[in-house]
Amino acid sequence: MMLNITDLKKEVESVITSSALTHEQAMIRLSDIPLNRVEFFETTKEFRELCEAGCLCRMSEGNVTYQPRYILPDYEKLFREGCKFLRLDPPKTLFEAIQTLEIFYRHVPSVTHYPVYLGSVDKLLEPFMDDEHAYELIRSFLIFLDRSIPDSYCHMNLGPEVTRAGEMIVEIETELKNAIPSITLLYDPDITPDDFAEKCVLCALNCAKPSFANHKEYKKLYDGPYGIASCYNALPVSGGAFTLSRIVLSRLAERAKDSEHFIQNLLPHAARELCGYIENKIEFLVEKSHFFKTNFLVQEGFVKVENFTGMFGLVGMNECVNLLMEKEGKEGRYGYSEEADQLAMQILEKLQACVNEFDSKYCDCTDHHFSLHAQVGIDSDYEISPGVRIAIGSELPLHEHLQHCGKFHPYFKSGVGDIFPFDATAERNPDAILDLIKGGFSQGMRYFSTYSSDCDVIRITGYLVKKSDIAKLDEGIAVPQANATWGYYEVKNSKIYERKVRSL
């Protein structure tokens, strides 16, 4: 691909002259520019055309990858055996445990250049909780994470069992109200006590975390343990995701004559092209880049190539279905019409079949197939709803909305979620919200996120941002968290502040 020097100079200049980027954020953006400008393997004419039309999207992770997009190291192995490369012995005290994690995190890469998975931190720290300074040490640890990892794709897991460490983390996060890290409670009503789950609800209403993952369902997906990383991605521990690309259903539907033409012709063609591209990226990463040959995470067994998969993302189901219904002269809308929802299921079933027809050389942990992912969107999306969510402004009544989620969430092995803000009075009824979560999970829902309407920290699509940081960016003032710069555009383009606030 020929480089347009004029456009390249403009892109570089826009970064180095921006007052709304910190030095570190600018360096990262500059380093990403050449990887997104140069192709290292041949792509088809059809693929390039679909990308230019906005029907397929490379997710700005570069046309070649030199590291997996999402990495979930085996932190339990780290605590058992230490790390030779980093000269870390197994920790013996809470201070050493926290210090070990802080050092190790610095060396875990991802598409964001920072770790997207921090591990089940409550379980890691629990053996050391007899320390009389536990509260101060864990509080300092959480402040360190917020100040040193500048994006909330960084994700900590808790549960499903209650631990002293987990309770302390939730208590401190409720106090600190930080946007980083994101946290998920691996929730199982048969294991997780209601009183702890309700504390987690109250924490979420104060700072948009933790979210709740349906542990009963997610634990069935892989042979070994899983973790929630980045936005809400369920991936194998000691593995992760090689890469993520996506299909933009709404843009593809613009080309369709009707639903039959979309499902039988356009969708299979686009899926084949995207699968081929994902496979090429994976083969380059595994066979030509250095990561799986020389990186200490691989050499010491913290991650294994067989525990990685490729993620096939989708967005814009809401707009896709509504457009196809209009083209056929039908009035039904996504979420409000059985016919429209049935059409959405037909699309998902066809897409799932197309993806499963493609055999990947790698992706051992998902039977050599790519994993469907309800992608949360990117900052440039406009009138494109994340994954299979109902569009903001069109939300169903709460119980009907949860039932709708339950119909579509099971299609997505590697991640799906929905967001339900509540008014400030919800803090008086955390048990009622917990009942809603239990009900949603019993009907197939995989992932539930919430926050309060008067909360500074909110969930944008899959990550967290402070509204106060968005306000600073409005004034051209730089903020330390990179996620705020992405969230700024998603707030504007996706009307995040107009999300329906629920009452109990």
SSE layout:
Blueprint: H1 5-16, H2 23-37, H3 45-52, E1 56-57, E2 70-72, H4 75-81, H5 94-105, E3 119-120, H6 121-125, H7 134-148, E4 155-158, H8 164-176, E5 182-187, H9 194-207, E6 211-214, H10 215-218, E7 226-229, E8 233-236, E9 239-248, H11 249-253, H12 259-287, H13 291-294, H14 296-299, E10 308-315, H15 317-327, H16 338-357, E11 371-374, H17 398-408, E12 418-422, H18 430-442, E13 447-452, E14 457-459, E15 464-466, H19 467-474, H20 482-494
Parallel strand pairs: 3-4, 4-5, 5-6, 9-10, 10-11, 12-13
Antiparallel strand pairs: 1-9, 2-9, 6-13, 7-8, 14-15
Helix pairs in contact: 1-2, 5-7, 7-8, 8-9, 9-18, 12-16, 15-16, 17-18, 19-20
Structure description:
With 504 residues, the protein is of the alpha/beta class. It folds into 3 domains: 1-38; 55-68 and 240-410, no CATH class; 69-232 and 417-504, no CATH class. The protein is 44% helix and 13% strand.
Features of this protein?
single chain, 504 residues, 6-stranded mixed sheet, 5-stranded mixed sheet, 15 strands, globular
Mean pLDDT: 94
> What portion of residues is helical?
40-55%
Classify the beta-strand content into a percent band. 5-15%
The biggest sheet amounts to:
6 strands, mixed
Taking all Cα atoms into account, the compactness measure Rg is 22 Å
Instruction: Tell me the span between the first and last alpha carbons.
Output: 55 Å
| Low-pLDDT segments, ≥5 res | none
Shape: globular
Give me the oligomer status.
single chain
Q: Give the tally of structural domains.
A: 3
Q: Please, how many helices?
A: 20
- Which strands sit side by side, in order, in the main sheet? 3-4-5-6-13-12
Structural class: alpha/beta
According to DSSP, the number of beta strands is: 15
